[in-house]
CHAT domain-containing protein
Amino acid sequence: MVFAAPNEALARAEELLGADPSPLHASVAHQVIGIWQRDFGDTRRALAHLRRARELAARADSAEREADVLATLGVALVHAGRTREGLAAFERGVARGTGHTRARVLYRRAYVWWVLGRHGEALEDVRRAVPVLRQADDVIWTARALTLRATVHLALGAVERADADFTAAEALWDTTGQEHDKADAVESRGLAAFRSGDVPAALRLLDEAEERYGKLGTPTFMLSIRRCEVLMAAGLATEALAEADGAISALDGIGGQSTRKAELLLVAARAARLAGDPQTSLARAALAVRLFAGQRRSWYETHARLVLLEARTATGRASGRLVADAAAVAERLAAFGAPAAPEASLLAGRIALDLGWTADAERHLAVAARSRHGGPPLARMTGWAAQALRARAAGSARGVLEACRRGLDVLDDHRMTLGASELRARATAQGAELAALAQRASLVSGGPRRLLVWSERWRATVLSAPPTRPPADPVLLSTMTAFRELAARADEARTDGGRPAPALEREQRRLEREIRSRTLHMRGEGSGDGDRFDVGRLLDRLGDDLRLVELAVLDGRVHVLLCGQGRVRRFEAGLLAEAEREAEHVQAGLRRLAHPGGEARLPLAEAAGARLQELLLGPAAAHLGNGPVVVVPPGRLHRVPWALLPALRERVLSVSPSASSWLRAKETAPPPGGRQVLVRGPGLASGGAEVPELADRHPARGGAVSASSPTERGGEAACADGDGGWGPEPDDVYESRAAGRPTVLEGDEARVPRVLRELDGAALAHIAAHGTFRADSPLFSSLRMADGPLIVHDFERLDRSPYRIILSCCDTARFASVGADELLGLVTALLPLGTAGVVACSAPVNDAAVVPLMLALHKGLDAGLSLAEALRDARAALPGDAVHQATGWAFSAFGAA
């Protein structure tokens, strides 16, 4: 009962002790309390109760009872870090017990061997225990033993054997009422899914296990350790670090198991290193090493030493001593049969290369490279990274490029198993080293064309395929509706009272976590074998007049790849870090210019634009010709207002996350019918004044369709149907679309379900609404509608997003730069879904000044211009004051429509 219903078991045991029981029964009660405290509470109290249980068992003259208590005591001592005493208790327990009891003792000693990282001994004890437990028809303990054996197999990389044992154990658990053990089985299946490379399934199963544990009210420290491992593999290292540190604090608060604390410190150290915080990684890893050493857990201690060495290397401490230490760690991990051994060999080889020790580097890298042909995707990538470094040391650019290609292909296949665009984007960080190696090799040996190919190979890859469409999950849909309603109430409370509403905001954050969690569970449906980038095809599309400027960053310097007139030329520009600082200054200047009275700052902004041009374009600025320009910046330069650069100020200018995405946009056909949608959200300072004026421009076609007409309101009930879908449409909407009149959604009709239904498949959408960018969670960046925020997750439910979209509000062109060179935000969510062109804003702007810009922009579109052409003409038509000029510079055209 202590695992099936722990709190009830604790209460029953305490009640029994209050009734003056016999020594035998009192021994059982103290053992139950000891187990509860050991696993869910204070380890010191656990030891006191278990020692009392043993004394009472001896007084009852029950050898079997004493053996059973000794096994429980042995586990508690090991978890308290007193390994020698714990193993001694097991020796006495095995000697005292017989038959069925001894098998249970052996199972628990096998568990301790696993905790200590001594996997061979663990498998031997389980091998001896399982037949006896089966013969005794002990279903619960047999299932526990099979689950443990599967977990040990996973630690050794034997995934198929683990799957077989997990399947057998789960069949047994289904016949019992052991809810804690069932939750543990689900958790273990999550670990198995992770080891086999299925990250979405792992996240789903671990979340399910957490729900089950939550119903039992039991702590979940082991679950936190496993989830941190999965989060790190998914590129969510910062979240893993926060979870590990939170679990450490909770464990310290209850005086919990020392062994679990050491394991949590190890995952925290790994997460900090992956999150780019080597100092925190050093501190956590050093403490973990000390704890593991004191606990005599060599397997774990060696893993912690590997992280410690990686953190030292990340702080720039390369030395011959580090090479030797990494090599020694690699040997020990290999002796343990640990899957992490190639990582240590790769580390030793990488440090040796940096020191110029080519012979040592070759020896270590050759060992690491063996993992490229088998195992989980990230292990194979480790092997291909080692192979690429070997080729670089040998001076073989061809070998470097081949190894990088093979390694990135592995990661491509892995990424496409992930359904969530966020996970796909973050996973690319695993390929950053391979991409950088390939770019350096192509720069040396292949000229500008090859550098362009490799720049494209790992740039904005998330946009290469639409994300998996969120499932018609009733729980997800209802959660999104609840989130929207709550966000609207919180926003209303802030607006009315000027103060935040903490309770509403806490619940909003909880719903955000639930939405995100369910989205991360989605499994990808595509393959990584998309169209490869073709330089010839790009140059054909560009022709003689159009220029595409792709900015590649190698070793901190910007390289300009100028494409057009049938060739690719390379120019060196400035340092990326300087360009980033200048871009931030420009953004601050634009924010100040958005308010009247900033005219004196206009020359400063123009001068900053000239400095940016020197840093980002360098000598290439003189070779742009006279025609349109497409700029393809790296992710870290996404906030540059490109129209402010002198060489681009008077041009037809568009921006694209990659040359590949520009090609796809160029070749995307507009939908038939030319349907237009105008949306006006609440609370704009200008009132979205351009929307009614734009609607009134079509009187010759019968006037715009207002969604506030009685017949339209009758159709709204159908579009917001109970399952979260969009439902059928009223007949007059079909008639209006056939007539070519724009649909106007405003007031109470600008609600998210209706807006999404109208946006789906439209030729042009203009949305005037407050935009909010969420740097902490970019897929919750939003546009404010009448019923709450329209978020990126909502857009991902569209079958086809509008061919052209104009977002006439602040911050809609802001992105979070994640992974290797990926962007997450509103615009990048739309591009893979069928949108060929977007006009959006990268800075706060003056709402009133936006209105004439938008009217002029639509005038150009009505005349048949592209978004980039219309935006160029619209800027030129604005008044010459600082506010209007800054407003024009803040908007950019993305894509090719």
